[in-house]
Every structure is written in C-alpha cells, then in structure tokens.
Amino acid sequence: MLSIVIAFLLVPYAIIICASCLCVRRQWHTKSPFWGANKQGVSVVVCVHKESLSTVVSCLNSIKKALSETDEIVVVADRASEDVCHYLAENYLYAQTSNGLFGKKNAQRKGVDLARNELILCTDADCQMLPDCINAVRKVAMSKDDEVVLLPIRMYGTPDTFGRLVEMEFACLQMTGLGTAMLGLPTMVNGAGMAFSKSLYLRHNSKADTYASGDDMFLLEHAIKSKSTISVCACSDAVIQTSAPTTLHGYLRQRIRWFGKAGGYSTVAVKLLAVAVFSANVSWTLALLIGSWTLGTALFLCKSIVDGYACFSGKRTLQTHAILSDILLLEMLYPLMILIVVCGAVVSDKKKW
Asked: Taking the model in full, what pTM does it have?
C-alpha cells in the first residue's frame, strides 16, 4: 500500500508538466501570428538596481531598436551606481526611488506612474529584447483585449555543465508557466517579461510592506482573482533574453529570493503546482530511503522522462540546451536543491531584491 501511495505522488506532476509542454509546443510560432495595423503605444518600464553601466546600456539599446513612434522607455533606478544614474538622467525618462521607498516593487510602481501609455511592458536591466518583441506584444494585447500578457524568457547559461543545468532548469520553469497560462490556470510569471494594462496595475493592492519584490506574481494573482484576461505571447519574436547565474551561490540566492515570496501566494493553482513539484521529487527519494530500490529507480526514470520532455520542449521553442546526461544529473541534484532553497527561504530577508 505504501508503495502505491509513493508511486501516486508522481502522477499529478507528470500530468501538469506534459500538458503544459504540449500546449506550448502546439501554439508556438516563429513569428507573431497576429496581424493588422496597431498604433497603441507601449511604455517599457525598466528597473535598475546594481547592474553595471555596460549592462544597462546594452539592455536599453536593445529596447530602443524595438520601439515605434508611439512607444517610450521609462527607467527607474533603485540605489544604482552614480555613473548609471548620470547616464540615465541624460538620455531617458528617468526617476529614482526615494524617501525610504526602496526595492524593486516600489521602483516598478514609480515607473508605471510615470508611464504615459495604457499598455505597460516590464523587463529587467540585465535583459535583452529582440527587435520585433514590442510589436508582438502589442498585437497580442490588442487582438485579444488582454489585460496581462506573459512573455517567454530564455536564460543563457555558460557552456560548462553548471551553466547548462541552470539553463535547462529555467527552461522547464518557463514551459510550465507558459503552458499552465495557456491552459487557463496561470501559475508562474517572471517580471523580466510581463505586459499589463496600467489600469489593472493601479487597481492592484501590492504587498510592498512585506516583500520588496515579487510584484509580478502578486499582480498575476490579482488578475486571476479579478477575472482579467491573461494570454501568452507564444512566438520567437517575443523571447526576452537574460544571462543565468554563473556561480552556485548566485543561483541559490536567486532561487531563495523567488521562493521566499511563496508565503504570500494565495492562488489555488500555484499551491497545487508547488505541492506537485515537491511530491514528485520526494517520491523517488522516499522510495529509496525505505529500501524499495526497484520502485525508487522506476520513479526516478519516469520523472526523468517527464522532465526530459520539458527540457526538449524548451530546446524546440526557446533554443535552450537539452542533453540527456545533463537531465539525469539535474534529476539527482534537484531534491537537494529544493531542500536548500526551502531552508534558505525560511530565514531570508524578504525586503531585499
């Protein structure tokens, strides 16, 4: 009986991941499938924190190549370096966080307040945007009258084993987040690639006093509860590109920061996904711990197949790495990573970026 219960722990996870990836693969386009004249302006809000001047300049230059005459860039610096602030003040619509209202969430709020257009596209200062990205988002938002549009994000890892593992793991997260949104049960969003209506954002009651960042997920939850329309810009033109953490310490800090906000999430679909992911990783490790080597090995291989499908789906859509040996290594390391992240999130400072 115990073996049956343990084996069943993998089933919800497999269904969610496979259904999500299949949905993304079927709806993915190399070019935006939405056509027609569209002159709605887009305000691109970029929050700058501790990024170097060269990184910020590269990001903003990529955005400028995607702008039309009705679009604008709004940049807000949150305790950025002096050279970055000086450059921004001379070249862009620019503001700084002040009066004790620091953190990414407050920076984003100030940027949205300054924006002149109704359609807001948020990204991070360490990201790169493709030339047709804004037009792709504009067409999706207008063709479906959506209040929230999720963009795909590709995280580039270093060519070594660690870089490939981080890149694949994030691609799996993207496939799941985009796929569940397409299925009508949004579970994840990343603020580096999210568009929304200004009116929706202003109606949103942010949890800024508790969390310095995470407004992307809290805004998504607000959109779900208010029954706003949510869509995915599932095309290669809209892929936001960013670099992966290059060290284990940086990777764990990033994941701890993300998971540290989970206590503020209240949407049922988000909680069910978290339980499914935890249960799937516990299933094969628990089977091995109780001495059921055959069941543990079988569950490990089954989960590897499911995650392999997600990794190769990421390779097909986001052009990320997907190598069988790396997938198996990631499977073995992931339960330990989850344990470290959960413990780290419990003691983390939720008022930091």
From this structure: 0.90
Pairwise CA distance, residues 248 & 314, whole Å: 22
What pLDDT shows up at residue 133?
95
The pair phi, psi for residue 270, each rounded to 5°, is -65, -45
Specify the pLDDT at position 335. Answer: 93
Cβ contacts of 203 within 8 Å, gap of 6 or more = 222, 226
According to DSSP, the residues that pair with 138 across neighbouring strands are none
- How far is residue 189's CA from residue 192's CA, in Å, rounded to a whole number? 9
Distances (CA, A) of 189 to 230, 293, 353: 11, 37, 16
How large a percentage of the chain has pLDDT more than 70? 90
Q: Judge residue 288's burial from the number of C-beta atoms within 10 Å of its C-beta, 0-12 exposed, 13-18 middle, 19 or more buried.
A: middle
Q: Any residues with CB less than 8 A from the CB of 83 and at least 6 apart, and which?
A: 53
Residue 217's DSSP bridge partners are none
Q: What is the 8-class DSSP label of residue 287?
A: H
Q: Three-state DSSP class for 318?
A: helix
Q: Token pair of 134, please?
A: 């804004």
- DSSP, residue by residue, 46-107: EEESS--HHHHHHHHHHHHTT--TT-EEEEEESS--HHHHHHHHHHSEEEE--TT--SHHHH
Alpha helices in 246-292 (DSSP H): 248-259, 268-289
The β-bridge partners of 124 are 47
pLDDT digits (tens, 9 = 90+) for 159-198: 999 999 999 999 999 999 999 999 999 999 998 999 999 9
- Tokens representing 187? 């579970």
Reported as half-sphere exposure (CB side, CA atoms, 13 A), residue 40 has a value of 20
Q: Name the token pair of 126.
A: 């360490």
Distance between CA 105 and CA 93 in Å, rounded? 18
Q: Is residue 55 a contact partner of residue 85, using CB atoms and an 8 Å limit?
A: no
Distance between CA atoms of 190 and 258, rounded to whole angstroms? 10
